[in-house]
């Protein structure tokens, strides 16, 4: 395999099309296509799905992972040889709740370390592992303990959640006149994969009513604001909800404490950059998770 062909594959995947990759490389789309075909000929398999955006096959995922690892090691080697520090981009998959709470000190650690450019991709902790399998990221915060092939899985701790709503919304919850059950209250979710409110209902032997109002707020801070505004109820990390509850702007809607164990899965690779990031993640988790 020629390194140029692997670099071209990465660009096609990252840019989403042959045309966009060609523009970045300053060559024609036909030249990009020829490089990909040459790569596929070398490995004896189709590696790219000609979809919109471009996807990769299982063989392509293996090559993308290898290419990203090679790029990181090449950059670190070059830095050492020339006694310099460059901006090495590290890609990480992270769920919004973690990014909004315990993960924040990692940002300070990366800034203090210098030379690392951090690229975060926000995804639900139940589904972030797919990004690692595809080679899109070097590490993920995930709820899955079993390691992806070629990666290591390290326990971080447990994130705890409360079901909460505004005082005004909580007043409508009950069996009295004009009141409704939790399954009929307006609900807030942060993304299409968010099932934590359903888990709360299931724990009470309920399912969400088909005619309840569902609002999607794709922002951790925005979700908290929506709760305070009375737009609906949801589950919020205890560390984030507690100040609001103490201030009286949020109310717990039951005694349940949801628990989600979190793990750090990363490439099995001896890398100064990845090692520094891993240390920062564990240090933050030791303080912010149970």
Features of this protein?
12 helices; single chain; two-stranded antiparallel ribbon; 11 strands; elongated; seven-stranded mixed β-sheet; D-Maltodextrin-Binding Protein, domain 2; activator; 290 residues; alpha/beta; transcription regulation; LTTR; Arc Repressor Mutant, subunit A
Q: Could you name the CATH homologous superfamily of the domain at 159-258? A: Periplasmic binding protein-like II
Q: Which range best describes the helical content: under 10%, 10-25%, 25-40%, 40-55%, 55-70% or over 70%?
A: 40-55%
Q: What is the terminal-to-terminal distance?
A: 46 Å
What sequence of helices (H) and strands (E) makes up the elements? HHHEEHEHHEHEEHEHEHEHEEH
Q: Stretches where pLDDT falls below 50 for ≥5 residues?
A: none
State the major sheet: 7 strands, mixed
CATH class of the domain at 159-258: Alpha Beta
What value does the average pLDDT take?
89
| Helical/strand content category | alpha/beta
Mass-distribution shape: elongated
Which architecture of the domain at 159-258 does the CATH hierarchy give at level 2? 3-Layer(aba) Sandwich
Radius of gyration: 23 Å
How many strands?
11
CATH overall fold name of the domain at 159-258: D-Maltodextrin-Binding Protein, domain 2
Q: Counting H and I runs of at least 4 residues, what is the number of helices? A: 12
Binned strand content: 15-25%
